[in-house]
Amino acid sequence: MQIVKGQLFADVCHHRALLVYLPPAYDKSTSRFPVMYVHDGGDLFDPAFSTALDVIEDKFAKGKIPELILVGIQPGNRRDDYTPWFSKAISPERNIDFGGQGDAYLSYVANECKAYIDSRYRTDPRPEKTGIIGFSLGGLISMYAAHQYPDVFTKIGSISGSYWYEGMVSFMREKKMYHPGLRIYMDVGSKEGAKKQNIQKQMVPLTKEAHQILADSGFTADQLALFIDEGADHLSKYANARFPGALQWLWNKKEETEMELAKLIRERRSIHRFTDREVDPALVTELMDTAVWAPNYHMTQPWRFIVTYGEGKRRIAEAVRIMKEKREIDPAKKKEVGEKFYNKIMAIPMLMTVIMEESPNLITRQDDFASTSIVIHNFSLLAWEKGIGLTWETYPWIHEPEFREAMGIRPGEKVLGNLHIGYPAAIPGAQPRIPAAERITLVDKA
């Protein structure tokens, strides 16, 4: 018989039943705790179905997992809630279609349920302290959450995820999602699907393919795990047994800290292709509020930034179109060239025009340029940590009168470039650097 050291509560949020587990330390401190949202009403840890809490609490005691809150969320209909889009039934004997209400369900978890839990319990609400996990279709919708809500859930657990679901692997391949703050745990039993005569027979190879897509998108071994449970079938007893190990990998204390600076610097890339996901201007302002803490001689703080997005991009796009049409020699190509550059600008999710006040003093001007460049680099690292990529473009037309007028650039100001900002659609590989030792001269004698 299990003796649970923590506390279990039945709760309700917006007509959905919740099972809330509070760890042993909850009543012994005033600390805030990480939260893991668990599908299927928390069957993975509910003592009525699983002995996982015994193992989890032992791992708490040994310091292998930080003490955390578990929130089991009861589904309405799991074939609807845990599927990202509609799909026909795959089993003639059951003949029940999949409703594809995953977006609505995840919106409930990310917004209503999380807000309720954060207000009622002592949670640490930050994304890096929030995860989501499930078994089977619950593993599928957890992976979908990684794509749709990477700024809400950063610990993703997909236990025997249903990657056979129609369109899921294709969706992952097309999205090529990467977010440096995510940790993703995947597993599957080696015998899963072996006795099936439908697409579920491909359970193991499709799980491996989904894992490879993520690895090819930029996730490293520190961020992404795939465990093959030899001899295990698609049964809850195997999922329950793997649940504590999944939590340990996702929340390992040694690796739960924010991305190390050295790793962040090495892994950041200039991004030229973006998804259509919008960038939150409030987040950009928040990141820039940190980025401006750059070394700055005499604290001139010569920078300012114009952020354009949505319909606001038309200001830049129209100015560029006019400039390109004016400068095109061939009259027959003027409209085509103008439209090409107009559409190119409009396709960028967000642009940030970087402007510097030009001091008449040469030394101050050089110092100010260096300081503003550091601000841009700081911002690029902070954005990358949030899964946002950018490239710094210094094309000639940023100095043209039409652009300056359109953007309201004042006399005495210099445009240092436009930052193209968005969520990466593709991440280029690293270009080798010359070892620093080859460019450093050490002098220790007069």
TrEMBL record:
Residues 265-423 form the Nitroreductase domain. Keywords: Flavoprotein, FMN, Hydrolase, NAD, NADP, Oxidoreductase. Pfam families: Esterase, Nitroreductase. InterPro entries: AB_hydrolase_fold (IPR029058), Esterase-like (IPR000801), Mycobacterial_A85_antigen (IPR050583), Nitroreductase (IPR029479), Nitroreductase-like (IPR000415), YdjA-like (IPR026021). Its cofactor is FMN. PANTHER family: ENTEROCHELIN ESTERASE-RELATED, IRON(III) ENTEROBACTIN ESTERASE. This is Alpha/beta hydrolase. The lineage of its organism: Bacteria, Bacillati, Bacillota, Bacilli, Bacillales.
